[in-house]
């Protein structure tokens, strides 16, 4: 079948995956060979090397975990610990495993429809890092899907609900609680289009956390209650992998049962210390599951509230919350969300199957994406006949859509083109549209709602005779469509001093392009192997570089340069991000007059080392407890609120569980790394609240000092910069944003430094501070000589010589010296 639009959408899920097709205005789930709507995201490789995907692989995992793999989506974009299928001695990375799931879905389409698809829209969590998105693209290529636009899962869910919706000028909240990830997205519907206003999410918050909580807090204690022979039965002990896998699968099944009943019976055989099979029975109570899900529900609700608050909305402004993902079938979770006090207090919409909604929405989006003719185009027109290159949107809110194009082939002089909608009553015709001398034309069509409108394209020559043309039809559907997708995490570059220069702020519409002027902090010597220009690209929101996720690095090494690049050389960096969050970086180095292009290698994250993860987690917990004691001593109510949220969300307990399993389970190691970042950010937030009075005091003392300096020694441009900096500082104080205020204080100090540099005061301050660092310098004799020269220059007021002396003294230090303090007392005494 020759398609003009992609039409197929795939939900590549943590637990289950599905593929759907758009047919007119309806979506259809393509069932697998077991006639099921979803395929478990599970892979088995047996001792003959045969690979199986789906239910059989998942069930095999109960007694053969060494040769099966599940939940690998959570490690997309990481390297370091591939899955080893021991029987066949075959290793596979997460994207290779995902590719097998995609390949299985492609086969289902072929078996059911006879169509071999080479293009499909694939959904990803909105909170996915760029490295995980890039890995998803690679998985699609490995599976034979050459054209695979990525779509954020909450956007897909909104499309499934809203494609033919009559709602207008309304806000929706997408609550997407999946098997392994959570997304909250605020959607605005307006004039037949919708926009993602804001998003918050967590890549490691999903139903699998509840499964593990059931295993670790209920089932393992019951197994090891002293009446059975199990020594050190825990998730992190490799000896018990088979037993733990059995318990995990049983917990997952029982969890689903108690969403419809008060209890569920678990009955399974476990191997004890001596290898004997021991029958284990347990009644899982709905009340216990509800207790265990509470911290995860709290975390998801807090993310929703944050997304709404940042959008300037309250529960009363939102028409409905769309429930997506298997866990939202739980009556308890639905009641919890509906509660106006502790939940969302927004009407819930569960009119669509929450398990297949994302796949259906992906198919809707796929119907609005035209096929790249180079990948899956129809046959070219026969030699000597006409073809037409069309420009139009396959779907949109307009009933009179615009279409343009160009007729190719024989001389178009005197030819006309006409579009006919034969299914309307009466038949609608555009009338004959004369072609221009180069064969181009523009017109508008008329389409009916509620169906796909297929227009016949008719070409007539100068005599009025109808001539064949390829393609001969155009299809357009009236429906709600997505506008520009937003960037879900801010993107920036890491700078010296653990700082970040943000290029794209969260929520930036895609595609987007940004440019930034940077300066190198080390020199590069051509062909020597010494020095390298490294520009780390970061993703996150924190003002400290090391609190963000490093997604890639642009590098220019000595072998790539034609001449030496001195320290402090300018680098003109441009980063471009497309709709699917593909990132391309270009660095222009003026001193070389050369541009370096690089599609960033986003797969830079390795699975954390278990021992290092445990050490860092212990250090962060100590820091949190220290902040907790200070908050208690000071009676700080804001810090107490943050601490209460950390406790309610169970961040520390969740981190401990992942750390304890990290040595055996790479998924746990990756999740533990993410939770460690969460704990660091949470501890930072507590410390920020405790630090807030001091920051405000510092800012209010600094402003008049900088103003005095600008008035005394600055220029007109410095006065303008100060006015802007003063306003920005006040905004940060009003917003009670410690990160932002800290940045504003830094900017004020930098302004003072620029004023002193322009007035030639800065070299004198820098010289004084470098003199205090003399004991650290590598060559004491040369240091003494330079300092003597510097003192003579300072006495003579010779700023130029002093700059040279400062540069030479800096070279004698083992590390770059700290920036000079613009308010050093030396400034007034030179």
From TrEMBL:
Q: Which InterPro entries match?
A: ATPase_NBD, Heat_shock_70_CS, HSP70_peptide-bd_sf, Hsp_70_fam
Nucleotide-binding as a keyword of this entry, yes or no, is: yes
Which is a Pfam family this sequence falls into? HSP70
Q: Which SUPFAM superfamilies match?
A: Actin-like ATPase domain, Heat shock protein 70kD (HSP70), peptide-binding domain
Which key words tag this protein in UniProt? ATP-binding, Chaperone, Nucleotide-binding, Phosphoprotein, Stress response
Renumbered to this chain, region (Disordered) spans 811-830
**Where does the source fall among the domains of life?**
Bacteria
Family membership, please give it: Belongs to the heat shock protein 70 family.
Name of the protein in its database record: Molecular chaperone DnaK
Name the species this protein comes from: Actinomadura meridiana
